[in-house]
Design brief:
single chain; 150 residues; alpha+beta; 7-stranded antiparallel sheet; globular
């Protein structure tokens, strides 16, 4: 299984407590997801994350295709980091580490994403498309975070 990696970093003009408060509310995942993905929770959106928490939602990565995703929060260290991993969904493997660093000018939000595509060699052929979609997702999220914390 080939593991792909993506990193993202953004500094927002807000104290770490405020940024952490926003990210630690799983309901805000809908706010940070591009509208064209048609994100929808499959259960009541929880207001606070915790280790072991499972969150199920649907989204449409491209027209005519809808997929269900179940993620689990596997680690939470208050004001420092949390990790979510896919338990059921479109990827063969998904692990997303969210890191938060206090800076003199605000808070740095870093992402380290590791994922694998299903279907072996056939799935690998879709990597350029998937990477483009992930880049679009992070670009949207970064712009939304700048807007929220401006």
């Amino acid at each position: 299984m080939k593991i792909y990696h993506m990193n993202n970093s953004l500094i927002v003009n807000a104290p770490i407590e405020e940024v952490w408060g926003f990210f630690s509310n799983p309901g805000n995942l809908a706010v940070l997801t591009p509208p064209k993905l048609k994100f929808k929770f499959m259960q009541e959106s929880p207001s606070r994350m915790f280790p072991g928490q499972r969150i199920t939602y649907c989204l449409s990565p491209f027209p005519g295709f809808r997929t269900r995703w179940e993620g689990e929060i596997t680690e939470v260290i208050e004001l420092e980091r949390f990790i979510d991993e896919q338990r059921k969904g479109p990827f063969a493997y998904w692990r997303h580490k969210h890191l938060f660093y206090e800076k003199a000018i605000g808070t740095e939000v870093r992402d380290h994403l590791n994922y694998a595509l299903p279907l072996g060699m056939i799935g690998s052929a879709f990597q350029p498309f998937v990477q483009r979609k992930m880049t679009e997702m992070f670009t949207y999220r970064n712009e939304k975070l700048k807007e929220i914390f401006s």
